[in-house]
Design brief:
Elements: H1 2-11, H2 24-31, H3 34-43, E1 46-53, H4 58-70, E2 80-82, E3 87-92, H5 99-109, E4 116-123
Antiparallel strand pairs: 1-3, 1-4, 2-3
Length: about 130
Amino acid sequence: MRTWLFAALLLAPALPAGACGHCVEDKVAAVYDHAVLTRAQARGYGTVFFAIEGSLTPDAARAVEGAARAAPGVDKGSVRISVEQAALSMAYDPDRTSAEAVGKALAAKLSRQRLKFEALKVVLPSSRPAPVRP
C-alpha cells in the first residue's frame, strides 16, 4: 500500500493540469484572434469578449453569430464564437456603439433563446483614453 501511495505522489506532478473551462482566461482564449485585435486597434475600434449564459446549442450559436454580425457598429468579419467555452468576441466602432450596448442588443435580439451575455473583457482602442469610473 505504501509503495502505491509513494508512486502516486511521484506521478501526480507529471499529470497535466486541466483547465476548468469556466475561468475568464479560458473563455477569452477560446475566441481570441490576434489579427482581429490588431485590425481593430489600427482602425480605432474596441474589442469585447462575452461569456454566454444559457443553452448554447449549435443552432443557438449560429443565431448568436448572425445577431452579432448584424449588430450596429460591429465589424462583421471580427465575430468569433466558441460553443465549447460559451464565449463570443467581436470588434466594434466606439463612435457608433459601446460594448455594453452590443451586449444589450444581442440579449434583446436573442431573447427567445434565453441567453445572457456578460462582458468579460473590453479592449479599448489605444488612441482613446480609458473611461473614468467613479
